[in-house]
Structure formats: C-alpha cells, structure tokens
Specification:
351 residues, globular
C-alpha cells in the first residue's frame, strides 16, 4: 500500500485528487496540507467527501511528509512548486507535480509565458512530462512527473496522431478552446465571478497563452520538426470540461480512411482515448459533457473539402483527464499496476 501526501489539498485539483485516491484500492492518503484550512476536516472544504474520510488539513512540514508518505502530489499554484519539489526529492519522496513548474524543458519559456526565471533548471531535464499516451515508459521510472495543463492535454491528444503521421502543415494549426470555470481555480476573481461569467462566451489570453509552450514542445518532439500553433481559449457557461476545436490544413487530400488509420494506429490500445464520430444520435462528435467525472479524452474529426481543412475535436473533463485523473494515471504507472486502477468511471447521463 503506497502512502500518499497531497500538498495544497484544499483547491479544486486537490479535492479531485482526494475524490479519486480515497477510493483507490492500492494507496492510502496519509497527509493533506493546506495553508488556509489547517485543522479543518477535509470534508468541510470538499463536501462530496463526507463519509469517506476523517482526515484533517495539516501544515506543510517536509519532515512529516518524509516520515508518513512515499509519494507526494504537489497541487500548488504555478510558481509554488519550483523550490518545494527539490526538497521533497532530496528527502527520498517521489513527486507528481500538478503545477506548470516542471512541464517545459526550455527554461527561457518560463520567462516568456509565466514571467519568472526558473530557479531549478537542472530538474527540468529530469522531470517527465506526465502524458501517458506519449511518455508511458518514462513515467514508469520517473522520480518527478510534471502533469500537463488541462488545455494542453486536450490540444496535444487531438493533434498527436495527425502530426506524428505528417498529415498536416505544422505551421498552420489553430486551437480554439471552450473552457469551464473550474479551470480558473477555487479562488474567484472579477473575471470568474458568477454574474460576470454566466450566460457569456468570453475570449481571454487570445494570443500568447502559456499552454502554447507545452503543446509546441510535445508536438515538435513527435514530428521531429518545429511545430507552431495559434491558441485561443474562451470562458463559457459550464463548470467542468474543455472542448478543443482544432483547425489544420492537410499537406495533400485526405480521406476518412487516412484519418482512421492515423487515429487507430496511435490510440487503439489506449484505455482512456475514445474515438467519437457517429452518423446518428445527438452526440456524433466529442462533447465535454459526456466526459465529466471520467479520465476519458474523446477525439473526433471532420474533413472540409471546400477549404482543404481538417477539423479535429478533443473533449475532456479539465479536472480529471486534464488534471487529477491524469495524475492518478501516472501514479498507477509509477506503482507498476494497471493504469486504469481507481479511474474506471462511466460518468453520468443525463447530466
């Protein structure tokens, strides 16, 4: 039984980690830290966990984490893990970091996209990008896993097969995302305040979004050449979920058969990828509503012969496959157990 600690357990990502790990048959959650909720029962902050745990939030104490845990999830705000993770690793703990602090290999990108200089650049080389569909074998042997961003996950998984197969122009890729409010975290801002967000569709960080660095990094590795993307998210009237609508331009005329070959060639044995392209019913293409509460990524496509355009669709639950579910999938790989353990959920319908 692996002993698990969660640093920053009072936020949405921490709460989702707890939801999954408290029912996981091969782990025990032994410590959950929070700066603002010390002494509070976990279920007072995450009421969906009532009856599942009597844990209380405790202060962040490295020595106590070393004593009581084998692996720690760091669910801190961006910039909060960069100096914390080295201390955890030095104490012999394995770490799955849910922040952006170790996702990007190029340290200069942190100055460009996050506005701060990375203070532990050597660890960037050691960290494994926590997307199992691309880095499964590396994750199995990692000491530090850097989980991807939620929007980056949807974009990369939607694009990976066609980029890897060399089917599209890698200088003309546009990723348009519709994102639920939980992606903004548990602390409200003027932009995420319910009356301001409700009933609207609001573009934000229209250019230069920080997840661009991750997407270009991973796709460039896949294609063995530089990949450049445009990336624009929109805040929409839902709480959980992301739909990425991705506009690409084929190098030559494509048929549905070409697309199915690329998608199945990469994802046929992936437990959390579903290919969604049907001829009947109201859910003929991916819809994030159908992924809520699950670790699935639903992927579909349409070919637009009129403009020589290939449109890819990728839908996930940003809190699960886009964050905590993916973290637990990486944990399973690190433990050497079936990577679907604790993640077999169908979600809900209707929702």
């Amino acid at each position: 039984m692996m002993r698990i600690g969660i640093i920053g357990g009072s936020g949405y990502v921490g709460g989702e980690l707890l939801r999954l790990l408290l029912l996981h048959p091969s782990v025990e959650v032994t410590m959950v830290t929070s700066r603002q909720s010390v002494g509070e029962y976990v279920f007072n902050i995450h009421p969906n966990l009532r009856g599942l745990t009597q844990l209380k939030f405790v202060p962040q104490d490295i020595e106590m984490l070393q004593k009581n845990c084998d692996l720690v999830f760091t669910a801190t705000p961006h910039g909060g893990s960069v100096n914390l993770v080295p201390k955890l690793l030095e104490g012999g703990l394995k770490v799955i970091d849910m922040s952006a602090d170790f996702r990007i290999k190029n340290p200069n990108a942190y100055e460009t996209y996050y506005g701060w200089k990375h203070e532990n650049q050597e660890l960037l080389k050691e960290a494994v990008y926590g997307l199992p569909e691309l880095h499964r074998e590396e994750i199995k042997h990692a000491k530090l896993v850097a989980c991807p961003g939620c929007m980056a996950t949807s974009a990369i998984l939607g694009l990976a097969p066609i980029v890897k197969a060399g089917l599209v122009d890698t200088d003309k890729i546009i990723v348009d995302l519709k994102v639920g409010s939980s992606g903004g975290g548990s602390k409200p801002t003027s932009a995420s305040h319910h009356p301001e967000r409700f009933s609207g569709v609001r573009p934000y960080q229209v250019t230069g979004h920080r997840h661009i660095a991750e997407v270009e990094q991973e796709l460039s590795i896949l294609s063995s050449q530089s990949v450049k993307i445009g990336f624009t998210p929109h805040a929409v009237n839902m709480i959980r979920g992301i739909l990425a609508t991705i506009h690409t331009y084929p190098k030559q005329a494509l048929t549905s058969k070409d697309l199915w070959k690329a998608l199945r060639g990469m994802y046929d044995n992936e437990p959390f990828i579903r290919l969604v392209k049907y001829q009947k019913g109201q859910f003929q293409l991916p819809d994030p509503k159908i992924t809520l509460g699950t670790n699935f990524c639903d992927i579909g496509f349409e070919i637009d012969e009129h403009t020589n355009r290939l449109v890819m669709f990728s839908a996930i639950d940003n809190m699960c496959k886009g964050a905590s579910g993916q973290g637990v999938q990486c944990l399973n790989l690190l433990m050497g157990i079936d990577e679907t353990t604790g993640l077999k959920s169908t979600g809900f319908h209707p929702m």
